[in-house]
Amino acid sequence: MMAEVELCEKLGKDAVLALLLEVSASPKPGLVDRFSRGAHKDMDFFTFMESSAALSSYFVKCARLGAEFRGDHPQELFNSLRPLGMAAEQAMFDATGGVNTHKGLVFSLGIICAAAACCMVEQQRARVDADALCEQISRMTAGLCSRELDSLKKTEGLTNGETLYRKFGLKGIRGEVENGFPTVRNCSLPAFRHLKSQGACHMNDRCVQTLLHLMTVNEDTNIVARHDMDTLAFVQGQAQRVLDAGGMLTDQGRQMVCELDEDFIKRNISPGGSADLLAVTIMLDRICSEGTERASVLRED
Ligand SMILES: CC(C)(COP(=O)(O)OP(=O)(O)OC[C@H]1O[C@@H](n2cnc3c(N)ncnc32)[C@H](O[C@H]2O[C@H](COP(=O)(O)OP(=O)(O)OP(=O)(O)O)[C@@H](O)[C@H]2O)[C@@H]1O)[C@@H](O)C(=O)NCCC(=O)NCCS
Ligand SMILES: Nc1ncnc2[nH]cnc12
């Protein structure tokens, strides 16, 4: 019993740490970091501190629901999370004075905490295989886009995600989650772990470099909501250009990251969706086993 309680508390801690490491990595083009508020007038580094603290108990609750889940239909687990998520979103707004800091991550990391706890208890393992975890997430959220985007009836009070699906067919965070985080599994987690294996760069630079990889491929609805699809393509091209120069691994690349940050701030461009996937990448790196690494046994008895 103790093992499951500890497991849920650890998942909650890992989720908050992912939030803190993401916002702390600097500089991040157009985003809030330790040096600037990026392309945001309504939030800064300390807004994210307040938001992260307000969410800590929520992630543990999501993990507990996952650890206790014994149903045959993973979608039931997802449905049980929604009320918790809506309440957490409100707690976030209360903590930030109404500013949207972590709306996407309340959704993404809440689901990850629940799915991971469910898999870990089932397999009696303290770490899970990333593909198995993401398959569980996909099962939990099957039909999400059809239910929430395809069947959309309302014409007023649409969220950014709903509006952009209507206009461009972009599924945003819902599509990423329902497909089991393919952008993280195929792009950012391998990049993040390769950088770690090289030992060449510290956590800060590893996070910024991984963000650049994400920006080259992610269909970030934050960018399109403020601008258009051409701007999304511009961001993807610019991120690739910086990576081609080495990104955070070379002096020239580091200079280009700073220049891109200044340019995005001038253009009011914020890749908030890619920032979220960076936090998801950090979380999956912490809770998922790496290839042949034997997952440590949950119980010693
Ligand atoms: C399911 C919801 C979360 C969907 O919300 P919504 O309909 O609004 O959908 P999206 O706009 O598509 O996404 C919401 C946030 O997700 C992030 N995001 C966007 N695209 C991607 C992507 N491709 N991959 C991953 N994540 C993505 C993004 O969040 C981040 O950016 C926000 C901060 O940036 P900012 O530009 O300031 O945002 P705004 O204030 O909106 O714009 P401005 O006015 O400033 O210009 C911040 O949220 C970051 O996290 C998108 O914003 C939701 O409807 C829902 O159901 N929520 C309840 C939670 C729940 O159900 N939980 C239970 C399950 S655990
Ligand atoms: N560091 C950041 N800056 C702006 N939006 C974000 N959404 C998530 N992390 C963010």
From TrEMBL:
UniProt catalytic activity: 3'-dephospho-CoA + ATP = 2'-(5''-triphospho-alpha-D-ribosyl)-3'-dephospho-CoA + adenine
Keywords: ATP-binding, Nucleotide-binding, Transferase
Class of enzymatic activity (EC top level): transferase
Keyword Transferase: yes
EC number from the UniProt entry: 2.4.2.52
Domain of life: Bacteria
Keyword Transferase: yes
Pfam families per UniProt: CitG (PF01874)
Family per similarity comment: Belongs to the CitG/MdcB family.
Protein name as catalogued: Probable 2-(5''-triphosphoribosyl)-3'-dephosphocoenzyme-A synthase
Organism: Paenibacillus melissococcoides
Lineage, broadest ranks: Bacteria, Bacillati, Bacillota, Bacilli, Bacillales
